[in-house]
Amino acid sequence: MYIEMTDETGQLPDGIMDQSKKLLMFAADYMKLPEKKEMAVTFVDNQRSHELNLAYRKTDRPTDVISLEYKPDDEEFFFDEEMELPKELLEELDPFIGELYISIDKAKEQAKEYGHSIEREYGWLCVHGFLHINGYDHYTPKEEAEMFSLQEEILTAYGLTR
Predict the structure, then answer these.
(1) 116 annotated to bind ligand
(2) Where does Zn(2+) bind (predicted)?
């Protein structure tokens, strides 16, 4: 998996970008995603998180992680309307799965609030966002149980425990 990482803040703690990339690669392998998949992660401050949250979710406050799942539009490939393409071909033509925006301010606040390391918090946010861009959600108790269970499974298997 190719992961583009950007720190818009210039304040990301040492090693976090490296850890985040390794953890996301591990999560992709764990979930058996095709190697050709691509995603982007951008570390932002609360002001930028607030702007993005308002623009994409119509929520007027900063948040810890914003996950923008990318779903390719079949129409952009200019095929005959009656032609149905196999999912595998569509995925190969467009490997981008989405992008995450992680607030470094929220990560600091939450690590302190939950009493765990900053590394654990960034790991949690990365995997949580990663699962969202791979179709997981937590709107219902059943979805939440499934997503949070898989999230903890990945973090534990990677060795990033509480």
Answers:
(1) no
(2) 128, 132, 138
Residue 128 marked in a binding site: yes
> Would you call 5 exposed, middle or buried from its count of C-beta atoms within 10 A (0-12, 13-18, 19+)?
middle
Q: Which of 35, 29, 41, 67 is nearest to 158 (CA)?
A: 29
Tens digits of per-residue pLDDT, 108-161?
Answer: 999 999 999 999 999 999 999 999 999 999 999 999 999 999 999 999 999 998
CATH number at residue 19: 3.40.390.30
pLDDT tens per residue across span 8-60: 999 999 999 999 999 999 999 999 998 899 999 999 999 999 999 999 999 99
- Residue 50 labeled ligand binder: no
How many structural domains comprise the chain?
1
Domain that holds residue 51: 2-158
